[in-house]
Amino acid sequence: MSAANNDFGTIIGKDATFKGELSYEGAAQVLGKVEGIITAKGKLSVAEGARCQADIKAGEVAVQGHVEGNVEAADRIDLQSSGVLHGDIVAARMSMADGASFVGTCRIGTNANGAVRPATPPAQKSEQKPAEVVVKDQKATATKK
Fold this sequence. Notes:
Strand 13 (132-136) and strand 14 form a beta hairpin. This protein is globular. By secondary structure, the chain is an all-beta fold. The protein has strands spanning 10-12, 17-24, 27-30, 33-40, 43-46, 51-63, 66-68, 71-79, 84-86, 89-96, 101-103, 106-108, 132-136, 139-143. It has no helices and 14 strands.
């Protein structure tokens, strides 16, 4: 998701620190530091050298810098080779480049945001009655009730 700066409607500059809640519709790039919450329908790019100590919810997230917080991407998250992410990830798709660092848990897939389902369905009671085992003179025979 690398793009020229003019592709981003919102840019947090290298010398800027933003604290609080940041929300936007289109695309944003963080070159400096953000602390708080980031909410977006569009793209978020955390550039190399940038730091986000924030929970992020966006359509698409690319990490080249350092993110500490949980990330939810409706479409995809890309951890690029210089990217570091400490937190949990929920996304429909994910890519992680060689050299990237991730510490946390992730749920990836089209149902990642859905309700947690058991791995196997609960056992259903059988309508059959178990066989009766009768032991006579050291020989076991099974009969159905």
